[in-house]
Amino acid sequence: MSNRTLNLDESLYEYLLSASLREPPVLKRLREQTAKAAMANMQIAPEQGQFMQLLIKLMGAKRTIEIGVFTGYSSLCTALALPDDGEIVCCDISEKWTSIAADFWLKAGVSHKVKLYLAPAQETLENLLAAGEYESFDFAFIDADKSSYWRYYELCLQLLRPGGVIAVDNVLWDGKVIDESANDADTLAIRQFNLQLKADTRVDISLLPIADGLTLARKK
Ligand code: SAM
Ligand code: CA
Description:
This protein is about 40% helix and about 20% strand. The chain is α/β, with parallel strands linked by helices. It has a 7-stranded mixed β-sheet, sandwiched between helices. The chain is globular, with a radius of gyration of 17 Å. About 35% of the residues are buried.
């Protein structure tokens, strides 16, 4: 028995997956295809995708935002968890990667729930606010360029209804958050983001040690 978060070794992680992962074939195929791509490790872990699906269902979320689509694994998890009249606004700048995502949204029969904006995410979020979408979303997932995390967070906070949740990925950054010799821009941005979020009384928070670290922030 342990009263602190366990360090998962390879075999305990394999057990976790075998005991709980219910990945549908379409998500498995996308994960296998992504594994062959350069930068495949940008994709979220499958157990994280399943957790986000559960969260979306628990919240009864209907309108969501995804910042950082890549080949589409997390967006497909979200789209599959949303009701048939749900919507996911997807932000990315890569036509090449999101074309794989679009292919899988189609294969999974969820394309009608997805709105893809190929533009810098800040611009898309600001346009949504300008179009009167203030407090009209339930859930947001931030997983794009780390140096913009705080800006995305502030914009998502405006776009989310009270009670809405922002999930922020990679907050443990492969352990570099505590490596004093790591002073690259991404690491500094994540450290600063974590520090500021802890002090932000506008939200309730929890940092989950799932995959590369996922913080949930619930707008009060
Ligand atoms: N959530 C994805 C998944 O689970 O497969 C992984 C996202 S990947 C870590 C980051 C993505 O952010 C890349 O696809 C990249 O093109 C995108 N990106 C980088 N800078 C961006 C920006 N300024 N605006 C929107 N997307 C951006
Ligand atoms: Ca990520």
